[in-house]
Amino acid sequence: MFIYKLKITGNPKLPAQFFEDMDLYLNLLNRGKQVINEEWQYEPIENGIQLNLYCPEKDSLNDKYLSGYGRDLKKKIEDNFKVLFKPEYAGIDPEIPSTPIPSESKFYILGGGEWSPLLDGETLESVPIYRIPFINYDTESYDDFYFWERNYKNIEDTWLIGGVGENQAKNQLRNFYSELNRQGMTIRKKIEELTSIPTYYFLFNYRAWGKIKDKKRKCPGCGADWLIEGKTINDFYAFKCDRCRLVSGLSSYK
């Protein structure tokens, strides 16, 4: 992971509105995975401030990856507050020294991943969202993708924490016809249409029904056999349906 210090200079006395606009701007960078961190800390420097940004590639902060709103907001911040943006490369994150990103993919998987839910289907490495065309063409943004991602994370957290809402969250995650997964399948289809790269949706599987029954599970979309022989619970996915563009994992050890 590449660390950049974003220096913002030209105005040593920035008002509260500046930081509100900056938080929105940085959030937009995160939506496209131009930056990975979701929190940031400002540090005072001569004639301005600076903050650390963590990026998957050396050119992640290039303005060509910005959404339409991101470009407009950056210009608004520069003009309204008389500041200049200057990213300076600071080095490699020692905790995450490398983020191998394939130059091209034979197929994608939507779901999983440490910092991006879009994966290369062969290496299972995360792919920055800005590598694909804008999901929302009219606004030049990835808003629909981001809304699905946030919904998924919130529901997954509810299931992991347990207690109130746990069963409802589990159903949203593993039921192919749930509102969450229908939303995800719509995004999957958009990515495939925009990139012409086969894109599969990862369907969550958590059931304590035993290995034999688990392996007999049929594709929930078309009812076909979709088990990949030789796969184990340690594999990211053990089921794959090319017709429905679905993959899923095994759930049971026993």
Describe this structure in words.
- By secondary structure, this protein is of the alpha+beta class.
- 31% of the residues lie in helices and 18% in strands.
- It has 6 helices and 9 strands, in the order βαββαβββαααβαββ.
- It has a 5-stranded mixed beta sheet with strand order 6-5-7-9-8, with helices on one face. Strands 2-3-1-4 form a 4-stranded antiparallel beta sheet, with no helix packed on it.
- A hairpin with a 7-residue loop joins strand 5 and strand 6.
- Helix 1 runs antiparallel to helix 2.
- The longest helix has 19 residues.
- The mean pLDDT is 93.
Give helix % range.
Answer: 25-40%
In total, the number of strands is: 9
First CA to last CA: what distance? 38 Å
What fraction strand? 15-25%
**General shape:** elongated
Descriptive keywords:
single chain; 254 residues; alpha+beta; 5-stranded mixed β-sheet; 9 strands; 31% helix; elongated
In short, what is this structure?
This protein is an alpha+beta fold.
Describe how the helices and strands are arranged.
Layout: E1 2-9, H1 16-31, E2 43-45, E3 48-55, H2 68-81, E4 84-92, E5 108-110, E6 118-120, H3 143-161, H4 166-174, H5 179-195, E7 199-203, H6 211-215, E8 239-241, E9 246-248
Parallel strand pairs: 5-7, 7-9
Antiparallel strand pairs: 1-3, 1-4, 2-3, 5-6, 8-9
Helix pairs in contact: 1-2, 3-4, 3-5
